Give the backbone structure.
Amino acid sequence: MNKEDLRKSMRKKLNKQTVSERRTKSRLIQKKLLRQEEFLSSKCVMLYVSRGTGEVNTGPIIKKALSMGKKVALPVTVVRERKIKPARLLSLRQGFIKSQYGIYEPKESRRARPVRIKDIDLVVVPGLAFDKNKNRLGRGQGYYDRFLKRISSAVPKIGLGFNFQLLKNLPTTADDVPLTGIITN
């Protein structure tokens, strides 16, 4: 299957889950991430808002990271430059707005203090699919792969996905950046 067909297939599977199934599976994945040494020892975590995507619910992870005093960075898409800019989330009360790609970003992201890439010591990455070789299939615009290339290879990059999102192999290109780990239910 090519990447575009896989994306369509995974979107269907994600959307087919009930709210209850997604919530239950997400809790298992959240617990696993929150016990990871990479998460526990991190000071600045790059996360993402999963609202509306059908993917693993990241809200409780963001909330926990903030309550632990971690600096939380969320991606803001800079469309004209085709890149992700990490923006600091100070509080969940800050609110979110939907980006051009339908992904939620911090409401005050344009004025928020940017987070320096060198300060990020853990990146939690979204994906439509993952494989046993720690490759990921994103939404097809390349934003995350370009972003991950700017992150030190020493920084853990962990994908979150449901069991059905973990495949044996994914089609990859030279532009794809493998992760250091994948957590599933």
